[in-house]
Design goal:
Number of domains: 1
Order of helices and strands: HEHEHEEHEHHEHHHEE
Strand content: 15-25%
Number of helices: 9
Number of strands: 8
Largest sheet: 8 strands, mixed
Distance between the termini: 48 Å
Helix content: 25-40%
Oligomer: single chain
CATH class: Alpha Beta
Radius of gyration: 18 Å
Structural class: alpha/beta
Strand order of the largest sheet: 3-2-1-4-5-8-6-7
Length: 257
């Protein structure tokens, strides 16, 4: 597969495409669409809850999530330390209530009602320090949204962790919840699960679809159509008590001081 496959396609004039490295997910890469939609559904869920508020999107990466949040928030600041991601986001996403800052998440400070921190805590050597900082930014009445992949579904069966070289620590539900409860008095925990066509695909895999498509020579043709067709409706968030979170793809927490 050529390197160009891993670059974003169809970017606006003057916006440099980002390369897919595995450190962050990207829109506009057909082969990455599953992961992009898996992240996007959580951003859209949060966006419906932060209308009229001041929001900081920590470790915003390419910027698509900050752009989603800005559709209803009073203001959104996307923060990322990576120079290429910051420059791309600054050029790609423009709105009067949206800005991007290059900086470290542990040091960036601005007034906020909400901090959004998705799919990044697993990258940190000192997650406690980051959470202390974010709790301070939202004060006594704000909220911090945090998500992370579930190691039980991310890693191969029986493995202690996935092979993602960017991850420092991958969490089980109890570990993740314990980390957050050290810093927040109130916590609502949700799990992200497959729905619709992705749930049907799960069931097909259990019935031997992996072996069948290889035997029939359909693998490349099937996934060339299936993966780009995935959208946010193919995922569903469920709260604790309505789901077995050991089977969740990702954990999503709403934290209040």
């Amino acid at each position: 597969m050529s390197e160009a496959v891993y670059l974003q396609t169809d970017q606006p004039d003057g916006v440099p495409p980002l390369a897919l490295t595995g450190e962050r997910t990207l829109p506009d890469v057909p082969a990455e669409n599953y992961w992009y939609r898996r992240h996007l559904v959580v951003y859209e869920w949060i966006a419906a809850r932060v209308a009229g508020l001041r929001v900081i999107d920590m470790a915003c990466g390419e910027g698509y999530g900050a752009d989603v949040l800005a559709r209803g928030a009073a203001t959104v600041v996307g923060v990322d330390a990576n120079p290429e991601a910051h420059e791309h986001a600054r050029l790609r996403y423009r709105a009067a209530n949206l800005s991007f800052e290059r900086g470290l998440i542990e040091r960036f400070s601005a007034p906020a009602d909400v901090v959004v921190f998705l799919q990044t805590i697993e990258h940190l050597e000192d997650p406690d320090a980051a959470l202390v900082h974010m709790r301070g930014l939202v004060g006594d009445h704000g909220a911090v949204y945090v998500s992370t992949p579930n190691v039980l579904t991310l890693a191969p069966r029986g493995a202690a962790r996935s092979g993602n070289p960017w991850h420092v620590h991958e969490y089980r539900q109890g570990e993740f919840e314990g980390l957050l409860r050290r810093h927040f008095s109130t916590l609502q925990l949700y799990g992200l699960f497959h729905a619709r066509r992705l749930r049907a695909h799960e069931l097909a895999l259990k019935c031997g679809w992996d072996a069948a498509h290889r035997r029939l020579g359909l693998t490349e043709r099937f996934y060339a159509r299936f993966t780009p067709a995935i959208d946010v409706r193919d995922f569903r968030l469920r709260p604790v008590g309505m789901a077995d979170l050991d089977r969740a793809l990702d954990f999503v927490a709403v934290c209040h001081p």
